Amino acid sequence: MTPGHSALATAWLAEALERIEETGALDDTQELARAQRAHTDPAQQLAARTWLLAERLGLVTQLARWREAAWLLLVLGAAAVLALANGLVFAVLAEGRTINAAGALVSALGLHLLTLLLWLASLVRSGGASGAVLSLGRVLAAIALRLAPGRGPHADALAQGGLRLLARERLAVWAFGGVGHVVWTLGFVFLLGGLLWAFAFRAYALTWETTILGPEWFSALARATGALPAWLGAPVPVPAEGATAGVWPARQAAWWLLSCVALYGLLPRALCALWCWLVLRRAARRVALPLGEPYYQRLLARLRALEPAEVTDPERPHAAPSLARGQHPGAPGVPTAVVGFELPAGAEWPPQPLADGAAWLVRIAGSMDEQAQVQAELARLQPRSLVVVCDAQASHDRGTARFLREAAGSAGRSALLLSAPASEGAQAAEQGVQRWRAWVLASRLDGWRVFDHPAAAAQWAAGSDPGTAPQEGSP
């Protein structure tokens, strides 16, 4: 976790980035380099990379919008509470002034007990890992995310990342179940309030009646359900013996019904909601990036690759075909560094006479790992003059501009040498050079000189500037 960023938010954003990168790796060369320079701990480096990329892709903004729209979830939850409470009150009081006490108890607690048992079963079966459990909390959260304003292009990836985080940390049942428990708790509060109001200001007759059950069944039900309320002082109604239908003592039956709803409905839901909150609170403090997973192992390997790049010995410039290896001067502030960037196989390397005065030579194919290695070594060496050699016939893009800008930040002054094979012809080479010069101006690569002859670049690197125009290179 980086300073100022919560571990939970970091893990959420990291899961979203992993989902986005399932369709192709993101260009994170700058982000990795900045994270590697800012931190020494690998976990902190990955966390920094996560936030830098998330800010660039708008994930941080999307997450902030969802936090601001949390009131939507509250509105939906309140609507669910009112609908649930009204449904329960209607189920209990729908028969007018006569209430079937046993039927009212089943109507008030039946669905609640069923869903509570299903939640406990899913908790035991999966340990909280399952993200596919259909629950009231999951439905409300999904609706709230869909209705939230300002959905960005990666909103779905961020939502799926949150689900994957809950599944990975075995918190899905706790999170969605907690929302459902809160709704049920408030629903029972409203139900008890409605029943108290009705029983206080209207007269109801609480009866027991049956077609196939005997009166002993109701006696057993009253004794079983009234045991806990009786322990707390609530009266237990007793049906008259030897009758198939009858009226319970109204006052006793009303308090029995209220105490059963409170003790078997409200209390379990409130305790489960508190339980979920404590589990989630504890988990939020211990959540961390799973560095052992393949995705994060690949990122760690790329961070390790940002160690200083090895270079070609100037006396043996053809020792390696791509990323040059050999010895380099150990002190920063070398005179001249030359980088070959995405050169074709037939290009002259290293370019003479530029290579004769170079203290550091490297040629890369342009992969993100190679770019990161070169940027790290340039930042260490701090060359006074940097020459990047590119193919004049190649197509430039934003990745090229990004590499040049970051490389220029490590050098005293920078130049671009455009190389063109003789087989291309003078006219084609000149067109390529002009196209690159126009692109350098359009990309606002301030301070970059452009050369089309190695001799002119060597003269510039040695400290004798062959021209005065900022973007002209031919002597």
Can you put this structure into words, describing what you see?
The protein is rod-shaped. The chain contains 16 helices and eight strands. The chain is of the alpha/beta class and 475 residues long. The longest helix is centred in the middle third of the chain and has 37 residues, at 250-286. α1 (7-20) crosses α3 (42-57) and α1 packs across α8 (155-168). It has helices at residues 7-20, 29-38, 42-57, 59-68, 70-93, 101-126, 136-147, 155-168, 172-201, 215-231, 250-286, 294-304, 368-381, 398-408, 426-442, 454-461, and strands at residues 98-100, 205-209, 245-247, 336-341, 360-364, 385-391, 413-419, 448-451. The strands form two sheets. It has a five-stranded parallel β-sheet with strand order 5-4-6-7-8, sandwiched between helices. Strands 1-2-3 form a three-stranded mixed β-sheet. α15 links the parallel β7 (413-419) and β8 (448-451).
